[in-house]
User: Fold GDP/GTP exchange factor Sec2 N-terminal domain-containing protein from Lentinula aciculospora.
Amino acid sequence: MSQSSVTAIHRRTPSADDPQTELISTLRGQIQDLFTQVTQLNSKLVQSYDQRTQHLSALNTGLLVERSNVVEELTRLMERATQEAAQRSSAESAKRNIETELEELSKDLFEGANGMVAEARYERFLSEKRAEESERRVRETEEKLVSIQQEMRKLDKGKWVPRTGDLVKERKLMSSHVPYQEFLGFVGHLRGLYGQHGQAAPAMSILLGLPFLTRIATEDSDPTLRLDLAPSLNWLSRRSSNRCRLRNSCIN
Assistant:
């Protein structure tokens, strides 16, 4: 019912005591209440729309965050904190292990140093003892030399008795010595080669089989050079080096 209809009804009302008049008054009051409620609802609707607009604007600008995003971020932070706590625990455990190893290493080094010092002191004691023993022997030797020199001086005062000819033994050349016989055979072989071929130097393959050169290589050159201990030389290489050495053709 509009305001004009209410006004028309009011104009048709003849008196205030009529039931229609009371009904109209009641209806007017109800209509006024309805207008008031509509106005309040419109205000609330506008306010709610403004609040929703502000809420959406805050969400878009980042002033407000949705609960799911907050829960997800909190979960991620908790997982990260748990991982960092586990890493910290592992680091502390590794640190304790390293400190324990350092303590054990320091202890071993200290014990080793003490052992080395004790060994050095013992070696020094032995060296001093050997030095004292050597000095004592030197003094005894000097005393013996002085005594021998005194005895020699006493003997020099006497007369020397010349040796008779019976005591002098005849010197003989021992030609039965095996190396000497091999040397004579080597010289004779060279003379025979020079006489037959007239060459300045015989072939080395002819000379290597002689006992004299074999003895020289076995008893002199090989023990000195020790080519058998060289891992890079085989039997043929050692043989070639022996030939070069006998020919005097080695190059430094």
